[in-house]
Amino acid sequence: MTDESMNDDTGAVEDGDAVEDGGAADESVAVDEGGAVVAARMPEHPRCGFVALVGAPNAGKSTLLNTLIGSKVSIVSPKVQTTRVRVLGIAVEGDAQMIFVDTPGIFRPKRRLDRAMVAAAWQGAEDADFIGVLFDASRRGVDEDTRGIVARLKEQGRQAILILNKIDLVRRDTLLALTEELNRDGVFTDTFMISAQSGDGVADLRRIIAGRLPEGPWLFPEDQISDMPMRLIAAEITREKLFVQLHQELPYAATVETESWEEFGNGSVKISQVVYVQRESQKAIVLGKGGSRIKRIGQAARTELEAMLEQRVHLMLFVKVREDWENDPERFAAWGLDFKA
Ligand SMILES: Nc1nc2c(ncn2[C@@H]2O[C@H](COP(=O)(O)OP(=O)(O)OP(=O)(O)O)[C@@H](O)[C@H]2O)c(=O)[nH]1
Ligand SMILES: [Mg+2]
């Protein structure tokens, strides 16, 4: 069965053990009955809220999330449809705890996975106290996907702020024309012009958002920056390296899952992950000559994981063919996506 095919070229050995629970690395939050965080610093008049970042694919939502919280929690790539799941990034500004929700790009879905991603993005917006719509200002004009987002917000009677991103790439007069065009529907209360990459304008954006969140207790400890379990973050990091190092269509045919997570007494950790592809030919591409490609991907992922976890990481990557992973309910469940969306 191609399903079970293992790759030995990577130098990785499977230990054959049952999948370990990576729970040791998962963050948990202590909450009292009212749902508020206990034993954390809490200002006298706390404010707290969910801020959804939505927009067309590639607008820079994940880059902005990372810049807003000052740490990388969401993966970024030059390709569209990088983000597949809803990612939370948490930051404190003054008395306010801002819980930013990075969402998959919103576009016209074709495949089942696309539908689930777009549904997750809208769910993120619906649950939020505050919505920021990102637009890549370096595009030639306003695209259909962004028009659709603005129209739907208008239909729902929801207000949002407009965030024109990538201003490092455009001239000022273009920005003014875009601002005018996108504000015609009266959906946006404010327009911000930023560069998520350089950080230009991001501090102002943060301050304004913090000031507008509703009063309420903080929901996470002050130093927590995400709610994503480490196993998932680790898989996402490897997927980012796949996206960046493999070109053409292949990235969309691949997905990564963390199978086991084993902490050792000497402070190191062994993480085993499976890269699922849809065909044997794709497996060969991911492996590269003599396993050289997967090795480079693994090295890049390990370097980033070590910096993030501040411990030594042994990363084992296996490549398996699973023809229909895109339509496998189990994969969707692992990402928190709705299979029936
Ligand atoms: N020049 C420039 N590039 C940016 C900026 N913000 C993001 N990018 C680049 O735009 C590309 C897409 O960024 P992402 O953050 O992955 O975009 P996204 O909206 O999360 O994309 P999806 O998850 O696919 O919907 C990456 O190559 C980023 O480096 C910016 O302010 N300036
Ligand atoms: Mg993204």
Beta-strand proportion: 15-25%
Biggest sheet architecture: 6 strands, mixed
Task: Return the CATH class of the largest domain.
Answer: Alpha Beta
**Count of individual domains:** 2
Give the neighbour order of strands across the main sheet: 2-3-1-4-5-6
CATH fold category name of the largest domain? Rossmann fold
Protein name: GTPase Era
Region (G3): 102-105
Organism: Azospirillum oleiclasticum
Region (G4): 165-168
Would you summarize the structure shown here?
With 341 residues, the protein is of the alpha/beta class.
Question: How do the helices and strands line up, and which of them pair or pack?
Answer:
Blueprint (H helix, E strand, L loop, with lengths): L46 E9 L5 H9 L17 E7 L2 E7 L9 H15 L3 E7 L7 H12 L4 E6 L6 H11 L5 E6 L8 H11 L17 H16 L9 E9 L5 E9 L2 H8 L4 H18 L3 E9 L7 H7 L6
Parallel strand pairs: 1-3, 1-4, 4-5, 5-6, 8-9
Antiparallel strand pairs: 2-3, 7-8
Helix pairs in contact: 6-8
Bound molecules: guanosine-5'-triphosphate and magnesium ion.
Task: Please describe what this structure looks like.
- It is a single chain.
- This protein is an alpha/beta fold.
- The chain has two domains: 2-24 and 230-335, GMP Synthetase, Chain A, domain 3 (2-Layer Sandwich), CATH 3.30.300; 29-212, Rossmann fold (3-Layer(aba) Sandwich), CATH 3.40.50.300.
- Helices cover 31% and strands 20% of the residues.
- It contains nine helices and nine strands.
- It has helices at residues 61-69, 112-126, 144-155, 172-182, 202-212, 230-245, 280-287, 292-309, 329-335, and strands at 47-55, 87-93, 96-102, 130-136, 160-165, 188-193, 255-263, 269-277, 313-321.
- The strands form two sheets. Strands 2-3-1-4-5-6 form a six-stranded mixed beta sheet, with helices on both faces. A three-stranded mixed beta sheet has the order 7-8-9.
- Helix 3 links the parallel strand 4 and strand 5.
- Helix 6 crosses helix 8.
- The two termini are 30 Å apart.
- Bound molecules: guanosine-5'-triphosphate and magnesium ion.
- An essential GTPase that binds both GDP and GTP, with rapid nucleotide exchange. Plays a role in 16S rRNA processing and 30S ribosomal subunit biogenesis and possibly also in cell cycle regulation and energy metabolism.
- Residues 194-196 are annotated as: G5.
- Monomer.
- Residues 246-323 form the KH type-2 domain.
- Residues 47-215 form the Era-type G domain.
